[in-house]
Structure formats: structure tokens, C-alpha cells
Design brief:
By secondary structure, this protein is an alpha/beta fold. The protein has two domains: 144 residues, Aspartate Aminotransferase, domain 1 (Alpha-Beta Complex); 275 residues, Type I PLP-dependent aspartate aminotransferase-like (Major domain) (Aspartate Aminotransferase, domain 2), CATH 3.40.640. Helices cover 35% and strands 15% of the residues. It has a seven-stranded mixed sheet with strand order 4-10-9-8-7-5-6, with helices on both faces. Strands 1-2-3-13 form a four-stranded mixed sheet. Strands 11-12-15-14 form a four-stranded antiparallel sheet, covered by helices on one side. The protein is globular, with a radius of gyration of 22 Å. The mean pLDDT is 97. Bound molecules: pyridoxal-5'-phosphate (PLP). Pyridoxal-5'-phosphate binds next to α5.
């Protein structure tokens, strides 16, 4: 494959990338299969990030390619406004049956995690209007959160720098993040910190529940540095939202579809929010698609109140909502997850993953290690994570620096020998980078 030269690289304004630095010193991926990416120079690199937290069944799955090909030939596209197609309904039913926790049995399709988040926020606002409580418009989010890049998600993002360029967004208050020094090197759910949820009561006391539409949190935070919720924290958030009549939204764009060793984090910890936003693993990253799971009561409030009329109940949707090609990719992906029991495999092998990543404790500069399911975060001194990532890349393993944390989220098909390679590589790369 011919790679572009510097002149040929100018037109593409690359996302979340230092464009000038990239174009001076580019890195190319040209192929992918299973656990590996092929670089422009032909080297095979072990992918510890499942692409960007999305290729949960591994790369290059033929079943998905075949389903996409067949769908393109059968029906490439159909207008989703006021027309339906069978695969949209089939996929919604499969998601309700196999992925969403009990009670979240209505599905709205989007094309990305950012769109799922903004969709959920719009549903929350209109829901309260329909209930005659139209003053409930504000949101509560959390520091270190990432909710994508659309207006709602950006307003509610608590990641450093993520909002600084864009001016005024939605009205929001922020809970503290749940990273506590006393929980350093916790394995799985940390023991301390459930009481941090009570900050929500303080925010409600200040702003008043009559003004708050919803609380949104990543129940298992990814981009902020793999932040695992303290035991009992999510339950307390649920209780406080219930007491004050506030909707609870879990943003599971990373967590859902097996990443935590179960279909969703909500299901894993037994806390059911009012909505769950998803994307990424829904199609194994092969075709853009997102889905918002809603409680039936929310759907009924929009759809099944008053007289049936020809007016759309929710003036929202995308040209590509439930795109037939994305539906075909998602159905093939769900089949792989089920047939290969990948969520169960992720759960089982997560023990070995935990032991492996925690064996890095004691290396120079390692300040904290966190893990849950097939996720891990390693905190390093300022400025080191990027150097570690560059070093592991040289050694044949890609890891992702998120601020000062190395984050990892390998495909769920990972085996023990891959974990050994990742751990051995980091064992050498972390000291070498400092
Ligand atoms: N929400 C969460 C929790 C995410 O991690 C992401 C992306 O990483 C998003 C939303 C945005 O998803 P997308 O990049 O598909 O718009």
C-alpha cells in the first residue's frame, strides 16, 4: 500500500490529533486482524485498546464483513423517518433481549456515542415537559467524565481542557470524581468512597430538584483514566435520584458490550438507570452506530399518552438512524458475542488480566493501578505516559496515554499469552521511558 507524503496529508484535518506534529512524524495503520494492527512499515502491533475501546470481538471479523456486504446489495439505505425496515426492529429486539438490563426495553438508534449522549439529554428534557415539569432542564455530571463531543456531551464533560475552546453550553453542576488516594492499587471496585455520591444531595439542595432533569455518569469511566466506581456509589446515586425525581443516565459507550465482563455495567452491579447510552462495541467498531436504551415509562410518556396522532412525538433522529448496513453489522456482532461467549470469556480472563497489570506495582513512577473487567489504568508522573506509549509501540504493543494515565481495553478475544506480552512490554517500557 502506498502511504501519502507530507503534501498529500494536508487536506485531512485530523480529529483529536496534533495535526502539525502528526504530519511531521506520521504513524499509519494499514491493516488489522484479530488482536493485531499492521503499521505502515509492515510491523504487527498488539492492540491493547481494541481500536478506540470498540473492536471487542477483535479486528477483521469476516462474519461482519459478509453481513455488511450482503446488506449493501439487498438494501443500501432506506429513509428511517416514517418508514421502517425489518433489521431495525430485529436489532432493537435483540438488544432488549441480550444486552439492556431488564426494564430498559426501548431503543433509539444513533450513529455514535456523542449522538447517543445528546439524544438521551434531549429525551430527559422533553420527558419533564411532557410531565408538566418543564423547569427541570439542568444536568448534573462529574469531573473527569467524557461524554463525547456534541453540544450536550461537551457541556457535561469534566475532562480537563475538553470545554475550554467552546464557550457557553448547557447548564450543569459537577460531582467530584471518585479517585481517592486511599484506594490506590485497588483491584476491581474500590472499597472507599461510596459517600461521595452524597455530593449530589448538596447540589440538589443548592439548585433544587425542580430545576434538574438528569444526572449523567459513566458507571465505569474510561477516557478520564479508567476510574472504577467505589462499591455502593452507583447504588447511592440511584437512591438519591429516586428520592428527588431526577432521571439517572449511565453513559456506557465504553462499558457496554462485554468490556466489563458482562453486557452492561448496570447489569453487572445491579443498578438500573433510566437510560443507557451506548455505541462502539455495538458494531465491533466496523460501522458507526449508537443506541440509547430507555425505560418503557419514558417511551410511554412520549408515545402512549393522549390521542394517537400523525405528529412525531420526538422531533429528533438522524438520516442514518438504524442504518440498515449498521444494523446488519450489529446483528452479526451480537451473534459473535453470543456464539463465542465473549462476555463470559472477558469475565473469566479478567482475573489473569488483574494479576498481570497489578504485577507492575513497584516499577519506577507507578503511582496507581486500577482495573475492572478488561480495562486497566496505570497512573504515571506528569509527562511520562506518552513516552511509555512511544516505547511500547517501538516494542510492538500499542497502549493509549490519557493524560498521565496509560489506559488499556484489549479486544475480548484476548488470551493469556497476549496478556503476558503486554505486561512484559510495560515492565521494560515504564522504566525505560523515565
Ligand atoms: N461517551 C463516552 C463514555 C465515551 O467514552 C465516548 C468516546 O470515547 C463517547 C461518549 C463519544 O463517543 P463517539 O466518539 O462515538 O462520539
Amino acid at each position: 500500500m502506498t502511504l501519502p507524503n507530507k503534501d498529500q496529508m494536508q487536506a485531512w484535518w485530523m480529529p483529536f490529533t496534533a495535526n502539525r506534529a502528526f504530519k511531521d512524524n506520521p504513524r499509519f495503520y494499514v491493516a488489522a486482524e484479530g488482536m493485531y494492527m499492521t503499521m505502515g512499515d509492515g510491523r504487527q502491533i498488539l492492540d491493547t485498546n481494541a481500536g478506540l475501546w470498540c473492536c471487542n470481538a477483535g479486528h477483521g471479523r469476516k462474519e461482519i464483513a459478509d453481513a455488511v456486504h450482503a446488506q449493501l446489495l439487498e438494501m443500501d439505505y432506506g429513509n428511517p423517518f416514517t418508514y421502517g425496515h425489518p433489521k431495525g426492529f430485529e436489532l432493537a429486539n435483540r438488544l432488549v433481549a441480550d444486552i439492556a438490563p431488564e426494564g430498559l426495553n426501548r431503543v433509539f438508534f444513533t450513529n455514535s456515542g456523542s449522538e447517543s449522549v445528546d439524544t438521551a439529554l434531549k429525551i430527559a428534557r422533553q420527558y419533564w415537559r411532557l410531565k408538566g415539569q418543564g423547569t427541570k432542564t439542568a444536568f448534573v455530571a462529574r469531573v473527569k467524565a467524557y461524554h463525547g463531543v456534541n453540544w450536550g456531551g461537551v457541556s457535561l464533560a469534566g475532562l480537563t481542557g475538553n470545554r475550554k475552546s467552546f464557550g457557553q453550553g448547557l447548564e450543569a453542576d459537577f460531582l467530584r470524581h471518585t479517585l481517592l488516594p486511599e484506594n490506590a492499587f485497588s483491584k476491581g471496585l474500590p472499597k472507599q468512597g461510596a459517600e461521595l455520591a452524597h455530593e449530589l444531595s448538596d447540589i440538589i439542595a443548592m439548585r433544587d430538584a425542580s430545576n434538574i432533569a438528569a444526572v449523567i455518569v459513566e458507571p465505569m469511566a474510561g477516557a478520564g483514566g479508567v476510574i472504577v466506581p467505589p462499591e455502593g456509589y452507583l447504588q447511592k446515586l440511584r437512591e438519591i435520584c429516586d428520592q428527588h425525581n431526577i432521571l439517572l443516565i449511565f453513559d456506557e459507550v465504553i462499558a457496554a458490550y462485554g468490556r466489563v465482563g458482562a453486557a452492561t455495567m448496570a447489569g453487572k452491579v445491579g443498578v438500573t438507570p433510566d437510560m443507557i447510552t451506548t455505541a462502539k462495541g455495538l458494531t465491533n467498531g466496523a460501522v458507526p452506530m449508537g443506541a440509547v436504551f430507555c425505560k418503557q415509562e419514558i417511551y410511554d410518556t412520549f408515545v402512549n399518552t393522549g390521542d394517537a396522532s400523525a405528529v412525531p412525538e420526538f422531533l429528533h433522529g438522524y438520516t442514518y438512524s438504524a442504518h440498515p448496513v449498521a444494523c446488519a453489522a450489529a446483528l452479526a456482532t451480537l451473534d459473535i458475542y453470543k456464539n463465542e461467549k465473549l462476555f463470559e470469556h472477558a469475565n473469566t480472563i479478567s482475573q489473569y488480566w488483574e494479576e498481570g497489570v497489578h504485577s507492575l506495582k513497584g516499577l519506577p513512577g507507578v503511582k496507581d493501578i486500577r482495573n475492572y473487567g478488561l480495562l486497566a489504568g496505570i497512573d504515571l508522573p506528569a509527562g511520562i505516559a506518552g513516552k511509555v506509549a512511544a516505547k511500547t509501540l517501538e516494542m510492538g504493543v500499542t497502549v493509549r496515554p490519557a493524560g498521565d494515565t496509560i489506559v488499556m481495553s484489549p479486544p475480548l478475544i484476548i488470551q493469556k499469552e497476549h496478556i503476558d506480552t503486554i505486561v512484559n512490554t510495560l515492565q521494560e517500557a515504564i522504566p525505560a521511558a523515565q
